[in-house]
Amino acid sequence: MKDTSLTASRGHATLTPSITVVNTHGTKKYRAYVCYRTAAGEWRQVTGSAPVPNVPEEENPAVHEMAKSMAVAAMEKNMRGKLATGKTGTPRTHRLSEAIELFWKDKTKRNVRGNTRYTYEKQLAAVGKRLPDKSISAYSTEELQAVVDAIPEAAKVLKSIYYQAVREGWIRAADDPTRYLRIPAKPKVRKAQTKHTEDWIAQAPGLLLWLAEPNTTDPTTGEKEQNRFHRFYALYLMEMGMGLRREEVLGLQWKDVDFDHKRVSVAERVIIELRGKATVKTSGKTESAARLLPLSGRINDVLRAKRDAERGKPDDWVFRTGKGTFFKPSYLTAIWQELLLAYHNWAIRDDIARSRKTGKPRQWPDEKEMTKKQWSATGYGPWKWRQHDNRHLAESIMEMYSVDWAVRKDILGHKTESDVTARYTHTTEQKRREAIELIDNELTPKEPEESYLTAEQLRAIEEEPDYS
């Protein structure tokens, strides 16, 4: 016979419930819960929930009080059911496979797909090979730590799985074995970054020069056409030239830019995307994300010309749509790949035209023009990189010129402090300005190389007398 007798628990002598707000698959609910103890001395919990009203609590507290009362009533009903069935001492256990299913339900609700979903699938497959399918409460921190040591990227997905389980009440937060996982701080470096960063730095000046022109000339026909990507010139210039994150650039308003002192306040607000919808967040990615950065002379001039042309007001977004609203981050990412394809094809035609004029071999003989479908099918290479890699270009240039790590950290808004002296090291604005100007100089097109001279110019050089 099952024992259903209860005793008072942790101050809940009268079973007075506690109430909290939880987020269940995107829906906010009031959750009422109490802890009780069976005659066998085991702690148990019973809960009940009710939806949180859409009206703010300060505007209509009575509606919220009613919702809380409904949550308490649901909890009491569940308690009566447990007492009637005698199941208070036999809580259900949930296996790892069930927790993974719950994880996928949440990701599907959040509309996660594409490369992100593929990454999760690979990580979960690797975790499944190392962990048997048993109750989620049966895993120890040591057992999960062994998995994380072998697969560092699995730490994030394991924490997310247990977070969902705690939120659903499948396991107590105090019993979550992922709370004490030691997560390696080693940054992830993609193979494409290691292989092609120098190529990207070499291509960036020409790309920015092409973006800076409102109209482009077809190298083969000589016809002029409107450059529809010119409107994004200042945006991508700031990403490459200052190492700003995509959400930081999109969150800029004209009041953040100080043209007189050539500086900008970054990450006062950022534009993020949740469930396919762009929204404003009032702080950056980390505590150190909000920072005051100097502007190079070129970026300052480009932004000033943009503000004057658009008659921008202090509260206007620096980068805005035709309706005056901020851009959706994923839209800018799609535009970035279209832009790279258009520049690639233009540069190849230009390479062919120069070769015909000078009679010299092509600079990129293996490169051909591509269609959108062909471009999508190719991986990252010398001409193709992610929008986020623009930030890595700035970082790589500073590293190439041995800019002090503390200056790089301040410019990029990194939080990690890999050295104790970071607590006591403060960089000056002059140091940061020198670093920004150094990046800008590297991204500025240099004088044309001899391979770009015409046949007539080459003959003139050869015919010059030698006075040495």
List the helices and strands and how they pair.
Layout: E1 6-7, E2 18-24, E3 27-38, E4 43-51, H1 61-85, H2 96-109, H3 115-130, H4 141-150, H5 154-167, H6 191-211, E5 215-217, E6 224-226, H7 233-242, H8 246-250, E7 257-258, E8 263-266, E9 270-274, E10 277-281, E11 291-294, H9 297-310, H10 329-358, H11 372-377, H12 389-400, H13 405-412, H14 429-442, H15 455-463
Antiparallel strand pairs: 1-3, 2-3, 3-4, 5-6, 7-8, 8-11, 9-10
Helix pairs in contact: 2-5, 6-12, 7-9, 7-12, 13-14
Helix content: 40-55%
Succession of helices and strands = EEEEHHHHHHEEHHEEEEEHHHHHHH
State the total count of DSSP E strands. 11
Task: Return the CATH topology of the largest domain.
Answer: hpI Integrase, Chain A
**Strand portion:** 5-15%
Q: Please give the radius of gyration in angstroms.
A: 30 Å
Secondary structure tally, helices:
15
Structural classification: alpha+beta
The major pleated sheet works out as:
4 strands, antiparallel
Principal-axes geometry comes out as elongated
Contiguous uncertain segments of 5+ residues: 1-14, 417-426, 448-454
Please tell me the total number of domains. 3
Distance between the termini: 111 Å
CATH class of the largest domain: Mainly Alpha
CATH architecture of the largest domain: Orthogonal Bundle
Q: Average the pLDDT over all residues and give the rounded result.
A: 83
InterPro entries: DNA_brk_join_enz, Integrase-like_cat_sf, Integrase_catalytic, Tyrosine_recombinase_XerCD
Protein name: Integrase
Keywords: DNA recombination, DNA-binding
Family: Belongs to the 'phage' integrase family.
